[in-house]
Write a structure and sequence with these properties.
The protein has 22 helices and 13 strands. By secondary structure, the chain is an alpha/beta fold. Helix 7 crosses helix 10. The protein binds arginine. Arginine binds next to helix 13.
Length: about 625
């Protein structure tokens, strides 16, 4: 099985490219053999000569030892344009050897008609089962701005892959197990016992605080002690430090005991842990919902769900002689990578061990052909180690398959403040994601009030919420995922430029054409109207529309949502130039009006569908 995501061919530029490649290969079969050739199709420098040109002749000159002009003649001889473009004529080859082609308006119209079907031409040639690792919160911690990325980008990957027809399963690999979790469990237990916290009323803010305290209280300050000794800070300081170390060591021991109790299923301890879990996950799923993502409770598969499999994973690695002892610990060596620790010398398992169990579940139980991890770029080494080890141990191979499934880390960069450093609150804390959503809604409400004071309170609430979420998500999605980006309220909420609000507004504008048409009683009958693609702006719009299926396929392949953002922004621009130049409701005749109404409607549906890939809801007014 291959992993291509080819879509129905509707993009004339791609189709031209294929025809040029065939012509080049047929023109020079011996010289080029089976070498791949690039047709180098670009928009024509001079529209007088056509819509597109191929610059391939120039790039082949050296390799073929011929003059570009002669090469161009040869290519032209072999070029079969069929119905797609006008036949070449004596003016088609220009300059040193550009080959110009002009698309036939009827072909464009029929391709657009082809696009205008349910599904808008989006479909993978071969359907796969794909697991997408999303969100990945940790118990007892507030979701912070970094989770915006793992949640929103991961959700977009899942949506886009599903749109291609794949079976998509999201997995929220929650950090809900291990020593740090035992630490905060122990802390919560002792706080409840001391009557300082009411178990039934505990909030995520409480847990977040307890987590920090517990961590602090369980970290012996050995470094401080060394410094105190070296710089002879005196008996008082040393006494304080040794008390801290004693306390912290005790707390750490206590946490380890709690971990053992958790692992052995001690009811009382599990009940406290369950409370941590419920409070964290309720908040998490609520935030996922506020962000208009599809992530729900049923996607949660936390680290704890693998707890009974870790010993088995280790046995498997040892049996296969993949893991080896190292100073009491177990490690796996993979070429070119640091060794992967899979069991500590005290017998504890690690983040990597759990991820190995998760690979096995995803591939062998859920049947994934491809597993995609939408996780912070700083975990790149971890995933290289896990993937290499999983493959070595046969965990990445479906039962009975003759090849491994694809494991891909789709990393993302950091969100930065305007000082270029990780985005933090003024007091240096992580920025809470729910606070960011609240602020976005407040800001959007103010802007909406300015722009449209006549809205009812209900309308305003709905619009502010949709615009806010769109702005926040779009600004995250539109920058190259792998890079860091600077969080900027003003830019994300702007109604001009490549922003969420701009695209929502573009959609609203098109829908308002139809409201007007309805008022004038001329709204009906365009759905199946013949498309007439005559004006240059109509042509540009048609070409932009035809790129939609290949854009979805490209996002599905590369897992780069910014490609969709860039596309939608261009489409909106092409529409607005079309609308400026071409009368729609006051078109010269009925046939033209219906054709243009159909183009408008199709554009709005492509915009909405593309925004839907991005998990952005549309509104009819704003
Ligand atoms: N909980 C992890 C963290 O906060 C993210 C989980 C990513 N997914 C995975 N399969 N490791 O770093």
């Amino acid at each position: 099985m291959t992993t291509t995501n080819t879509t129905q061919r509707l993009d004339p530029v791609e189709m031209l490219g294929e025809r040029f490649v065939a012509a080049i290969q047929n023109a020079f079969p011996e010289q080029l053999g089976s070498e791949s050739v690039d047709p180098l199709i670009t928009p024509s420098k001079n529209p007088k000569f056509g819509d597109y040109q191929s610059n391939a002749a120039m790039s082949l000159a050296k390799q073929l030892g011929m003059k570009p002009r002669e090469i161009a003649d040869k290519i032209a001889e072999h070029l079969e344009l069929g119905d797609l473009a006008e036949p070449l004529d004596e003016n088609s080859i220009a300059g040193p050897g550009f080959i110009n082609v002009r698309l036939r308006p009827e072909s464009l119209a029929s391709l657009v008609t082809e696009l205008d079907r349910p599904g808008l031409g989006v479909k993978a040639e071969e359907q796969q089962t794909i697991v997408v690792d999303v969100c990945g919160v940790n118990l007892a911690k507030q979701m912070h701005i970094g989770h915006l990325r793992s949640t929103v980008i991961g959700d977009v990957m899942a949506r886009t892959l599903a749109k291609m027809g794949h079976t998509v399963i999201m997995q929220n690999h929650v950090g809900d197990w291990g020593l740090p979790i035992a630490m905060v469990t122990a802390k919560l237990q002792s706080e409840v016992a001391a009557g300082r916290i009411d178990m039934d009323k505990v909030t995520l803010d409480d847990l977040d605080r307890l987590y920090k305290v517990a961590k602090e209280e369980s970290s012996p300050d050995n470094k401080g002690m060394k410094a105190a000794e070296r710089f002879q800070l005196g008996p008082k300081v040393e006494a304080e430090l040794s008390a801290q170390i004693r306390g912290a060591t005790e707390n750490l021991e206590n946490a380890k005991k709690t971990l053992v109790r958790l692992q052995s299923g001690d009811e009382e301890t599990i009940a406290v842990w369950q409370r941590l879990y419920d409070v964290t996950m309720t908040a998490c799923i609520n935030t996922c919902k506020r962000l208009h993502t599809d992530i729900t409770d049923s996607d949660t598969a936390g680290e704890s769900s693998f707890r009974d499999q870790l010993a088995g994973i280790i046995d498997l690695l040892v049996e296969q002689k993949i893991a080896e002892e190292d100073d009491g610990a177990l490690i796996v060596r993979n070429e070119g990578l640091d060794p992967t620790l899979v069991r500590k010398s005290d017998g504890g398992y690690l983040y990597a061990t759990t991820d190995l169990a998760a690979v096995r579940k995803r591939v062998q139980e859920l049947g994934a052909d491809r597993v995609v991890y939408c996780v912070d770029a700083r975990q790149a080494l971890h995933f290289k180690q896990v993937f290499a080890t999983a493959k070595k141990a046969g965990l990445a191979r479906k039962i009975g398959a003759d090849h491994d499934s694809t494991l891909e880390h789709a990393p993302f960069g950091m969100v930065l403040g305007d000082d270029g450093r990780p985005f933090k609150t003024r007091s240096g804390e992580n920025v809470k994601l729910s606070d960011v959503i609240d602020e976005a809604i407040e800001r959007a409400a103010v802007i909406s009030e300015e722009k449209n004071p006549d809205l009812t309170p209900d309308e305003r609430t709905n619009i502010a919420e949709t615009v806010a979420v769109a702005a926040l998500k779009y600004s995250d999605l539109s920058s190259d995922r792998i890079k860091d980006y600077v969080f900027d309220w003003d830019r994300m909420l702007a109604f001009e430029g490549n922003t969420g609000p701009y695209l929502l507004f573009a959609y609203v504008r098109i829908r308002s054409i139809f409201r007007k048409a309805e008022d004038q009683g001329i709204a009906g009958g365009f759905e199946t109207a013949e498309l007439l693609i005559r004006e240059p702006e109509e042509k540009t719009l048609a070409l932009a529309l035809l790129r939609y299926p290949s854009t979805v396929a490209a996002v599905a392949r590369t897992l780069e949502p910014h490609r969709m953002c860039g596309y939608l922004y261009e489409l909106a621009g092409a529409f607005s130039r079309f609308f400026e130049k071409c009368q729609v409701l006051r078109a010269e005749d009925e046939q033209v009006r219906l054709s243009r109404l159909r183009l408008c409607d199709l554009t709005s549906r492509v915009l909405a569908d593309g925004l839907d890939c991005l998990g952005i809801q549309t509104i009819d007014r704003m």
